Amino acid sequence: MFYERIKELRNSLGISQVEFGKRLGVTKQCISNWENGNIQPSIDMLIKICNLFSISSDYLLGLSSKLTLDVSGLNSEQILHIQNIINDIKSA
To answer: For the whole model, what pTM was predicted?
Structure first.
């Protein structure tokens, strides 16, 4: 599940393996190996990946299918606006 999620997340940012590797301080080959399921990243690297995408390790590792949004720093009105957008997208 990890290799599928990592590729999906990278593609959602619209970045290449090279760019993704630069952001994490690893090579394109390393990213390619992760996405092909050949190797697994270290725990330290998992933390960096989770921080980059603002996701939980449970989601990244396939232990949960639930994604969350970090709304800290937003006021109640802004959070409500985001919730309305999400509801609109779900009902479309």
So the answer is: 0.75
Instruction: Report the C-alpha gap between 62 and 3 in whole angstroms.
Output: 10
Q: Which CATH architecture has domain 2-60?
A: Orthogonal Bundle (1.10)
- How confident is the model over 49-66, as pLDDT tens digits? 999 988 889 999 989 888
> Domain extents for the chain?
2-60
How many residues belong to the chain?
92
- Is the pLDDT score of 20 beyond 90? yes
Q: How many CB atoms lie within 10 A of CB 21?
A: 19
Residue 71's pLDDT is what? 84
Q: What is the largest CA-CA distance in the chain?
A: 45
Do 60 and 46 form a contact (C-beta atoms < 8 A)?
yes
Q: What Rg, from alpha-carbon coordinates, does the chain have?
A: 15
- Could you tell me the two tokens for 68? 């969350």
Helices 28-35 and 17-24: angle between axes, nearest 10 degrees? 110
